[in-house]
Design goal:
The structure is a single chain. It is elongated and about 65 Å long. It is an alpha+beta fold. A hairpin with a 5-residue loop joins β1 and β2. It is 46% helix and 11% strand. α2 packs across α3, α2 crosses α4 and α4 runs antiparallel to α5. It contains 12 helices and 5 strands. It folds into 2 domains: 67 residues, 434 Repressor (Amino-terminal Domain); 184 residues, 2-Layer Sandwich (Beta-Lactamase), CATH 3.30.450.
Length: 270
């Protein structure tokens, strides 16, 4: 149906994604089923209280809840703070402490869409293994914010040296797809990456909508000169889900996947 308000389209889509009937959602949000039906058909507009209860009943992540409220014409439910806001100073300090403690191995702080907020010196050294860092960022990002997923998968980025590219690309894309429920920025990133010629859209959502779960550890194996070096990442989430930024902040800590890579990393640190 065309001409529906964005809120009505989003409400129905989110309800169906969660496999809720109108009655189920109406009960959870403490509204009548008839009113919910009118909201989905565009015949009624929600009040702020109703929109907020629907967002809660749908169990929306902060960023998506804010977008949901915006579609309804209301202010955000959650504060969208930046990592450098004074309120998040303790979180920023804790993240910096973790980055320092992970030396000589790379570690990076990213937000919910993979944009890089901070990194330790070992991460910068690792990037330099693939050529001049400034040129690398320019080729893969242009004027966009630095993004870990874009750096990994872009054909002009580190992907050119990635021996098991398809395996890593599948894992990364399916991770972003799972997190796409957190907000529109994640979906926009997926759409951008899938437009690259080196990416098969089926890696995101295979035909039939089902794919086997990723392996517990997916090592990234890169050919650097004559050597093949492997690393894998461990993700640590920081902050409470009450905050649209803090709830999405995580640290990607990279570890050597084999003894040879460990020796190379430790030698680079020296």
């Amino acid at each position: 149906m065309t001409g529906l308000p964005p809120f009505s389209i989003q409400l129905k889509a989110l309800r169906q994604e969660r496999r809720l009937s109108q009655l189920d959602l109406a009960i959870a949000a403490e509204v009548s089923q008839r009113h919910l039906s009118f909201l989905e058909s565009g015949r009624s507009k929600p009040g702020r209280g109703v929109a907020a209860r629907l967002a809660t009943a749908l169990d929306l992540a902060p960023e998506l809840a804010n977008a949901f409220m915006a579609d309804a014409g209301f202010a955000p439910l959650f504060p969208a703070l930046r990592i450098d806001d004074p309120e998040l100073a303790p979180l920023k300090s804790a993240a910096a402490h973790v980055l320092r403690g992970h030396m000589p191995y790379p570690a990076v702080v990213i937000d919910s869409v993979g944009d890089i907020l901070d990194a330790n010196p070992a991460f910068e050294v690792a990037i330099a293994l693939f050529g001049d860092p400034s040129s690398l960022w320019t080729r893969t990002h242009g004027g966009r914010p630095k993004n870990l997923y874009r750096l990994t998968l872009h054909p002009a980025g580190t992907a050119g040296a990635l021996v098991n590219f398809e395996e890593v690309a599948r894992a990364v894309l399916q991770r972003i797809a799972r997190e796409a429920q957190a907000g529109p920025r994640q979906q926009a990133l997926i759409d951008d990456i899938v437009s690259w010629k080196t990416i098969d859209p089926a890696w995101v959502r295979p035909a039939g909508g089902w794919s086997p779960p990723p392996r517990p550890i997916v090592a990234e194996r890169y050919k650097i000169g004559r050597e093949i070096l492997g690393v894998f990442a461990v993700t640590t989430r920081l902050g409470a889900a009450m905050n649209a930024v803090a709830g999405g902040i995580r640290i990607e800590s990279y570890f050597p996947a084999d003894d040879k890579t460990q020796r190379v990393m430790e030698r680079l640190d020296r």
